[in-house]
Amino acid sequence: MARLCLLTAAAIAALTGTAVAADISNTLDGPLRGSFTTEFGTRVWIGSGSTSKNLLSPGGRFLNSRLTYGGLGSGSAELFGKVSADDFFLSGYAGLGTTPGGSLQDEDFPPSVAPYSSTRSPLQNGSLSYLTVDVGHNFYDAAGTRLGAFVGYNYLNQQLNAFGCTQDAANPGICVPAIGSATAVISQTNTWQSLRFGLSGDMQLHGPWTLSGEGAVLPYVSLHGSDTHWLRIPADFTGPIPEDGTGWGVQLQAMLDYHLNDHLSLGIGGRYWQMQATGSAHFEDHLAGGGGVAQPLTWNTGMAGLLTEAKATF
Q1: Across the strands, what pairs with 68?
Q2: Residue range 61-80, pLDDT digits in tens
Q3: pTM of the shown model
């Protein structure tokens, strides 16, 4: 949380500098004046989400295990900007944040594990970072309404850490007795990279209010991750198990802004991301006794929350 506060303060400082630049730009003359519009600002994203993995047997005949990371309350600070020239625009944002809590439910199913096992572990000290860059063209601009299409790229990195372990089912051999919350048990790192195609627009409402939004389809999503079972290294695994996959997703965002003057505005809105991928967990060469094989898996991650923003335009 301390890091989030520092990031927010830095973002506000950057916005203040941009606002000063906006005032200075009013004194400039020349051929470039009025030929382009630049927006810069800062946002805070407060939300929640979940991410889950199904690990299948070789050949995908039955479900071996399911790990569900739920209750992922998170907060992040981000910088964003947009440059428009005639009907073309370049936009993007980047953010850093924390996922301080949540819980992991780790399920193992017969016949790979019998009887059925379901363990619970609290999550601590998680983090996330993300980046989006889009380039687009406004194909409609009239009567206070503007619509455009864009293509872009999205990057998301999630780091989750589970501590302790309590058996909630009847399996007597896993986390019995319970493992204390001071012991690291599982860490998961996932990096999602996506191609974006979408539509964006904004509309001038009554008075100083503006409504804007965007929706993007992610036709290609690439996942690279690693699963570290700390208590099984080196007894069962030689190190983290690499994971990969491809899939698709969607990203939606909407903002309602109030313009304080010609240059500064404040806004509130929401954001929703959902991505999924199908791939493999690469146990080959990572089992302590050798002989491991790749096993099919599926990943699904979703995040939603509230956005607040401060923006300068010149």
Answers
A1: 52, 105
A2: 899 999 999 999 999 999 99
A3: 0.88
Q: Residue 157 and residue 52: Cα distance in Å, rounded? A: 15
- Token pair, residue 206, equals 């009554």
CA 252 to chain centre: 12
Q: Are 257 and 267 in contact (CB under 8 A)?
A: yes
| The pLDDT value given to residue 33 | 43
Q: How many residues are recorded in the chain? A: 314
Q: Is residue 221 pLDDT above 50, yes or no?
A: yes
The answer to whether the beta carbons of residues 15 and 267 sit under 8 Å apart is: no
Tokens representing residue 65 in the block:
């295990």
For the chain, what are the domain ranges?
A: 2-313
Rounded to 5 degrees, what are φ and ψ at 17?
-60, -40
**In the prediction, which pLDDT does 36 show?**
85
Quick check: 82 and 89 in contact, CB under 8 A?
Answer: yes
Contact assessment for residue 156 and residue 182, using Cβ atoms and an 8 Å cutoff: no
Query: Which pLDDT score, from 0 to 100, does residue 20 have?
Result: 36
Residue 120's identity, in one-letter code, is R
What whole-number distance in Å separates Cα of residue 29 and Cα of residue 147?
30
- How far is residue 170 from each of residues 3, 164, 173, 230, measured CA to CA in Å? 41, 18, 9, 23
In the structure encoding, which two tokens stand for residue 63, read together? 């479900």
Query: Domain 2-313, what architecture?
Result: Beta Barrel (2.40)
14, β-bridge pairs: none
3-state secondary structure (DSSP) of residue 60: coil
Residue found under tokens 């009907």: 87
